[in-house]
Structure formats: C-alpha cells, structure tokens
C-alpha cells in the first residue's frame, strides 16, 4: 500500500510510531496529484514547495519528540473559499483575481496548530453557489458531475490526492459531493466550527466541516477544528470534546428514526434499497428502529431559497453592480434574482425556520438519530439539467440534490453522510445520519459502527 492510500487515522498511527515520515506521505500525495489531476481537476492550485518544506519541519518536530497529535504531518486540501494566509482565495471566480489572504481563517489556523500540511486549494462551484462544481470531474467517472459546492475537496479525498479536506455546506455542499464520490462528509451543528475567514454564501446557513475517507477520520478533524471564536457571531462556546468513537460496533439502546415521509420520496430505487439495507444493519448492531414523520416538508424548499438567495445577494451586492460580467451565468442569475426578493419573503422564511427547528427538536426527543438517503440519486452525467421520476415529476438536478440535505442547514442540526453502496452503474450511494444539536459524538458513533461492519473502501481508480 502506498502512503497516499492510507486513511488519516492510519497515516497518523504510522507517523506517531515513526514507521512513516511526513515527508514520505506528502511526497506520495503530491505524486498522486500529478497522476490524477489531469483527469479530475480537483485543485485550483497545488502548494507543492510549501507542503514539502512544512513536511520537513513536521518531520524534525516528530524526531525531537514534539508530536502535535493525529493531524501532525497529514496533507489537507482546503476548499477555495477558506482563507489561508498568503494564499489566494479565488472562490473559483474571476472576481477574485489577484486576491491574497492577509491572515488565516480560524479553521486554517486550527489545522496549522494541529500540524496539518496544506497541499492545495480545491475547486468550488463559484462562490459555493451551486451543486455541481462544473470544472471538476467525478472521481469514479469523469463523465459525471463531482457534486458541489465542495466538489474539489471530495474528489481530492476520493482519488487519494489529499488525505483529508475541508469543505463548506450551505444546502448540502459537503454531503452531496462526499456522497457522489464515495467518501464521508460531516456538516457539524451550526455554530460548532467557526467561520471567521470563510467567504460567505448565506451567513445563517453556512457551515464548515471535514471530508474524509472514514468516519473515524472525520472525528479526528472535527476535534481539531471545533471551538469558539467570537469573531464569528454564530460561534457557540462548547467544552472541548474528543469526538473519536469507541472501537466496538455496538448500538444497543440507540434509537434510529426511519422517515416514512419525504426522505424516501422521489428517490432512485438503488439508493432507497442501499439505504434501507444499511438501516437494517444498524438494527442488527442493536439499534431500535422507530418510524417517524418529517414535519413541514412542503415548506422546506421555499425556506431554503428564502434564506439563502437574499443573504447571498446582500454579500455580493457591490461586486454584482460593479462587475456583473465577471460572474458565471448561473451564479449571476441567482444573485440578480435575490435583488427581486423583498424583506417580507426573508422574514417569512426566518419565521418558518423557527417553527421547523421546534418541530425537529420534538422529533429528536423521540430518537437519537435519523437515518435517510443523503441524496436521491447517484452522480448524473455532466451537463444533465433535469431528472424525471417514475410518476412523471420533472426536477432540476440542483433541486434534487439539495432537497434531502437542506433540512439540516435550515434547522442547524448535525448531519453525517456515509457510503453504503453502489448503483447499477457502479456509482457511490450514501446514507445520511442526522442528530440533535451538538450531538456529533452520537452521529459519529453510529456511522463508525456501521462502517466497521463493512469491507474497507478503496480509492477511486482514476484513469
């Protein structure tokens, strides 16, 4: 096995026990990037010289007994809406030409303190405002979409071009590409991970979180990046938590809610079958399945758009008026649409969100987690704009992908996507676990327990 094939936890163990050096790991990942990047285009920029220099420093520290923890010497790809000092944050947009970050974002500073090594900045759908990341190809089939908006991060992890990555999630932008590329994605509770230094799409929906090979890896990253920062008004002070799940896949006593409404409606048959099979596996591990209804489903799409669109437009207002021609057409249309929405629309969406949060809180008193499909279908071919369901309903691809993920953004609850199978074309399928606010340990425990019963997943064979 080559070093780039190691999970974060495995690589950390090898580095800690001095069987692998950070230099060897970084060199292996950089070689892998050189091999796969022409096929997948996951990166905006690769920081090879900086990564090698930092790896040598990490190696010296380890040799001197100064080991910073499980992220010490581990290569990370960071979504290009997250500031890293001295590095351009382009947000994959022409409007950011010549930009350089004057300081680290909070999460970049946390990763730096933990010893992680920036390997490069990964592509996003322009300003994270889309679900396809069109400049990046799916790791399993380059004729299919990567998913967005953290598509570059998911593809980098799935193809071995990063040991782990950071993404952002406003309506599913961590979980959607993680699912479509067969890796793990975690959207933490709103406020758990600070967003200072992260380009905003919609301030009341934005989250930062990890994309990793395994659930255990996601727990290691979350432990490093969670924490309070008063520079983010939404940041919540939570006592330091070690999110790593226990080794035994025992779910005795865990109550798993299985939706009878919404999450299994207009869902591909392969997706539904794979997720239900995974839920049955949770039951076999000792979990108790409880039938639940999802509240206020008719309002979900309107609330998501009613919050996101005007907030995004407000952020971009000055640039949109000064240089509208520099935006991609799909993003410009959405930003201009936001100027047509009145304050009343936004206020009604905020009120509906409050009612939705309350209703979800009542459900999550009855169950510990909710298990459901992460997305309604696997990755579609690039350029496909709509999907037609068996009942004749036609849905845009973007609406389809955001439909099952946006409730967690609206309510702020944590959500974890875990690979659970493949469709008939061999494309990855994912299960989504949702839980109570700040109950990430429970989600990670359940996801880890399921993962422990499955064969180890291989990297995408990019060709």
Automatic annotation (TrEMBL):
PROSITE patterns: AMIDASES
Domain called Amidase: residue spans: 24-444
Entries under Gene3D superfamilies matching the protein: Amidase signature (AS) domain (3.90.1300.10)
UniProt-listed InterPro entries: Amidase, Amidase_CS, Amidase_dom, AS_sf
Pfam family, one: Amidase
Entry superkingdom: Bacteria
Protein name, UniProt field: Amidase
Species of provenance: Streptomyces prasinosporus
Taxon lineage: Bacteria, Bacillati, Actinomycetota, Actinomycetes, Kitasatosporales
């Amino acid at each position: 096995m080559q070093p780039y094939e190691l999970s974060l936890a495995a690589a950390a163990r090898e580095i800690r026990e001095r069987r692998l050096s950070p230099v060897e790991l970084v060199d292996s990942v950089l070689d892998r990037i050189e091999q796969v990047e022409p096929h997948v285009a996951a990166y905006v920029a690769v920081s090879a010289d900086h990564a090698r220099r930092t790896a040598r420093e990490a190696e010296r520290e380890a040799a001197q007994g100064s080991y910073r923890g499980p992220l010490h010497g581990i290569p990370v790809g960071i979504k290009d809406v997250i500031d890293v000092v001295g590095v351009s944050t382009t947000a994959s947009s022409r409007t950011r030409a010549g930009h350089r970050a004057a300081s680290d974002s909070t999460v970049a500073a946390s990763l730096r303190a933990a010893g992680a090594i920036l390997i490069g900045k990964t592509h996003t759908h322009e300003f994270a405002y889309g679900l396809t990341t069109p400049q990046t190809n799916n790791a399993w089939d380059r004729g299919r979409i990567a998913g967005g908006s953290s598509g570059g991060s998911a593809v980098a992890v799935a193809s071995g071009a990063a040991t782990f990555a950071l993404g952002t999630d406003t309506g599913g932008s961590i979980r959607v590409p993680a699912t479509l590329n067969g890796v793990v994605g975690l959207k933490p509770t709103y406020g758990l991970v600070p967003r200072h230094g992260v380009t905003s799409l919609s301030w009341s929906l934005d989250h930062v979180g990890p994309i990793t090979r395994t659930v255990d890896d996601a727990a290691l990253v979350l432990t490093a990046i969670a924490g309070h920062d008063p520079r983010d008004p939404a940041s919540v002070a939570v006592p330091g938590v070690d999110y790593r799940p226990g080794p035994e896949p025992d779910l005795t006593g865990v109550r798993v809610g299985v939706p009878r409404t919404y999450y299994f409606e207009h869902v591909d048959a392969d997706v539904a079958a794979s997720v239900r099979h995974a839920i049955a596996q949770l039951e076999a591990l000792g979990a108790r399945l409880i039938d639940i209804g999802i509240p206020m489903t008719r309002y979900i799409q309107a609330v998501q758009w009613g919050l996101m669109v005007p907030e995004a437009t407000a952020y971009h207002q000055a640039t949109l008026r000064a240089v509208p021609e520099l935006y991609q057409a799909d993003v410009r249309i959405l930003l201009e649409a936001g100027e047509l929405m009145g304050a009343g629309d936004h206020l009604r969406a905020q009120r509906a969100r409050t009612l939705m949060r309350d209703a979800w809180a009542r459900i999550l008193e009855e169950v510990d987690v909710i298990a459901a499909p992460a997305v309604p279908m696997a990755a579609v071919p690039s350029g496909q704009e709509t999907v037609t369901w068996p009942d004749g309903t036609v849905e845009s691809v973007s609406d389809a992908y955001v439909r099952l993920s946006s409730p967690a953004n609206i309510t702020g609850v944590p959500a974890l996507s875990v690979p659970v199978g493949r469709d008939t074309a061999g494309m990855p399928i994912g299960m989504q676990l949702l839980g109570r606010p700040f109950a990430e340990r429970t989600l990670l425990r359940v996801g880890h327990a399921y993962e422990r019963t499955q064969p180890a997943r291989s990297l995408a064979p990019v060709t």
